Every structure is written in C-alpha cells, then in structure tokens.
Please model this.
Amino acid sequence: MLDLMPTLGSWQPALSGQRCAVATIVACGGSVPRPMGTSMLVSEHGEVLGSLSGGCVEGAVVEAALESMRDGGSRLELFGYSAEDAFAVGLSCGGELEVHIQPADPAELAGFGALAGRGAGAALALIRRLDAPGAVVVDDPAHFRAAASADLARLLGDDPAVLAAAAAQLEPLLRGGRAGLVRLESPGGCDPDTEPITLFVESRLPAPRMLVFGANDFAAALIPAGKLLGYHVTLCDARPAFTGQERFRAADELATAWPHRYLAAEAEAGRIDARTVVCVLSHDPKFDIPLLRTALDLASEPGLAYVGAMGSRRSHRQRVDSLLAEGTTAEALQRLHSPIGLDLGAVTPAEVAVSVTAEIIASRGNASAAPLRNGSGPIHATDPSMTSTSTLSTSPARKAQQWT
Model:
C-alpha cells in the first residue's frame, strides 16, 4: 500500500466512498515485474489504481477483487507460468506471484490517503492483518519497538505472548526498510480450526545517501544519475569556487568542507549507514588519501554500501601504497572499488556516470555484472529478505485460495 499513498488522496473512487478491494503482492519468485509489497486498488465499478504486473495478471486480479467485495472474503491468488496452457492467466516472464486480495476498510483508506503529504522519501511503515481487518501505521520504522506500541497490541488482540513473538519478526523488517509476511500462532494455540495471525509488513526508510567528493565534470554527470536511482545526493568539495557553480545545483545538498572531516562529522552525527555510497572523484592525493582512510574505516563499522575512487591504474597503485603506509589494512583495501566503475568503454562524463552507477547496482546486489545473454536461470535473483515464508505454486498458471 505504501506505493499507492502518494496518489490515493486524489483517487476519486476512494474520495466518493465507493467500496474498494486492495490486492497486494505478498510473495514472489523468479523474474517478476514488480516487487513484494506492490499494491493495486479496485473499486466496486472496476476502476483501478496501481498495477501489479504491467498487464499480465491485472484482469484476473480485478475479477477476484470484485468477487471479494461481493462476498466479503479474502483471497490468495497464485500466478505462475504455464507452458501447457497458452491462454492461462500468468506471467510470461516465468516468475510467480502470490497476490492477497481483501475488501478495504473505507476509514483506513481515508487515513492512508491523508499520509500522501509526507512525500515518497519520508520514513513510513504499514503493518496489516491479512486474516482479519486492521492496520497500524508506523511513523519511525527504524526505531520501532513492538512492545511499546498500543496500536499493535490491539491489532494482535492484546495478547502479550503474541506481541512478544511479533516483535522478533517485525522489528528487523521495519528497521531494514523491507517488506515481508509474518505468521504468528493465534491465541488458540494448536487448535487446527484456528487460523494463524498473518501480518504483512511494508517499511520505507528515508532515501539512501550518495556522497560525491570532488566538484568536477564527472560529479556534474553523476549527481543526476544518483538521484535517478533514488539516492539523496550530497556533493562535497573544500573549494568554494567549485561548489558554488550552477551546474551542481541539482544535488540535494552542497557542502564546502575538507572531505575527510565532512565524512567523519556525518558519521559522528549518525547520518551514515550501511546503505550509504561514497564516490571519490577528485583524484587529488591531498583530498583522497585522508578521505579514503576515513571511508574504509567506516566501511567496516557502521558500514558503507560502496566506496569507489576515480583514477588511472597508476594512480590506484600509488593510492594503495600511500594508504598502506598510513596504516590501512589490506583487508580494508578489499572494500575499495578503484579505479571506480565497470569497464564499459566510458569516455565522456555521462558515460562514466553510467559506468559508476552500474558498478554500484552490481555491488549492492552482489551481481556478476556479466551480460545477461551469457547467463542462465532467472534474470532477477531472489532476495531472501524480500520473499515470504509461503510456498509458491510452480505448476499452474493461476490457483486461488479463499480465506474465510
């Protein structure tokens, strides 16, 4: 539902009080167009907000959503690929989706629509019960404590044992900005007629940071490329005459400071985390060496997603010798991407920006960066943190389970 909140407040069916059903991807496997947590709203007249697959399964989801509104029940629809039945509803890309569909509470929809003003980059999380009505909005997922939440306790039936079990599974998802299914034993215990409590968690943290050091042509090209990938981009340079140039105004933040001091101060203030990317483009030893020493220390604790430095192979060797002489360990140097970027034959600043961002993406996903045509198996590797514990259907193109 988080993906729909920016537009939900202006969606006419919800504003006019029409009955609606919400369909959410709660598990996925293989190559799929949209990630877990993606939602779609369907009104009682068949109007649609959002998309789950770009067209492969939407028609079937709308039909199931209308049925859900008619009978008031929830459904779990499974969509896969069927080579045997070319006309089956499924995913031509070969992936598999589990889509949960349930009638939406009008009051909750109105409340979700009111959250649109927070902006797409604001921290926010949503915990929904799939086996029963109810949801909890979490304003600060990075610091959420389940035991201190009266709203969560009410959602779980005010059972302390269930709340304690929920905390162990919910809090890592919320703090990591991830989506996932959480299944909890209901107060009925082992009674086979009692359904488990099923929660779906969506968590969104503030945009990760990209710190670009060195105000030059390459930085001017990398700034918009980083923003396109969803990073909050900061440009830092010690020289005011450089950072003050108009071409760098696209950066979210401009800092005129010695790079290593700026990075250390940001870390001290708690504004650096394991999603932060550091790109050193100045290739000037008086800036680079102290900055890289600081960055490589931070790469181990609290952690950085990526540290890259621009320069030729010769300058890289000189840089490594200088860092070793100043006490940087060989193990720490293994975390340095230098020369920065992938070998794409890049020449212009714009091409270099593509090379750098490609390496960041590959590093972030632990990917090979090899051409897709040379590989085999699913194109999109499955991230265990982004799939549910349920078992996906592999044979039928579509199968449904109705929850009563």
Remarks:
- The chain has three domains: 1-121+389-404, 123-205, 209-364.
